[in-house]
Amino acid sequence: MLDDKDFLILNELKENARNSTKQIAMNVDTPRVTVHDRIQKLIKNNIIKKFTILPNYEKLGLNITVFVFVASNPYESKISISKIAEEIKSFPGVFEVHIVSGEYDILLKIRGKSFDDVGKKTIAKIRQIKGVGRTFTCPCFTTIKEEI
Fold first, then answer.
1. Which pLDDT value is given to residue 32?
2. Is there a contact between 16 and 9 (Cβ–Cβ < 8 Å)?
3. pTM
4. Which is nearest to 24 in space by CA: 1, 2, 47, 40?
5. Given 21, 28, 79, 141, which is the most exposed site by the fewest CB atoms within 10 A?
6. Domain extents for the chain?
7. Which residues pair with residue 68 across a beta bridge?
8. pLDDT tens, position by position, 83-113
9. What is the CATH number of domain 4-44?
10. What distance in Å separates the CA atoms of residue 19 and residue 130, rounded to the nearest whole number?
11. Which pLDDT tens digit goes with each residue over 114-144?
């Protein structure tokens, strides 16, 4: 079980995973060795899956973000939603794939250089997958909060 100190350490790492153990220890008012041991425990217990970065996508030329809902067509094919999602995850520009419930089965987060780029390189390919019934695309105008 995680305690308050673990959550403080996780928040520090979310803010800046490059901070030294010494800096994190100072920020959470805990001995450095304790912070180090807790981080190692969080890694061992797969609470921390990996350390990564949050890029500036605009500077990378990926100015467009869209969310795409995908509905399967179970009458057309016996392909499972999981298999459709697995195929989609490798497509260019696909950053997130979530299996959801409701009218649609899969929710995607896609990034690209332009709407045309996203449409031709990714969404058109998704619509060709056997078992995909329909899609619904929501363009994102502004991102207020994004975490990794």
1. 97
2. no
3. 0.84
4. 40
5. 141
6. 4-44, 64-140
7. 108, 137
8. 999 999 999 999 999 999 999 999 999 999 9
9. 1.10.10
10. 46
11. 999 999 989 999 999 999 999 999 999 999 9
Same fold flag, 4-44 and 64-140 = no
Residue 116, judged by CB atoms within 10 A of its CB (0-12, 13-18, 19+), counts as exposed
H helix runs in 16-147, sequence order: 21-28, 32-44, 81-88, 115-118, 124-127
Check if CATH label 3.30.70.920 holds for domain 64-140: yes
The two tokens of residue 112 are 């690209």
Specify whether the CB–CB gap between 121 and 112 falls below 8 A: yes
* CA pair distance 144, 142, nearest whole angstrom: 6
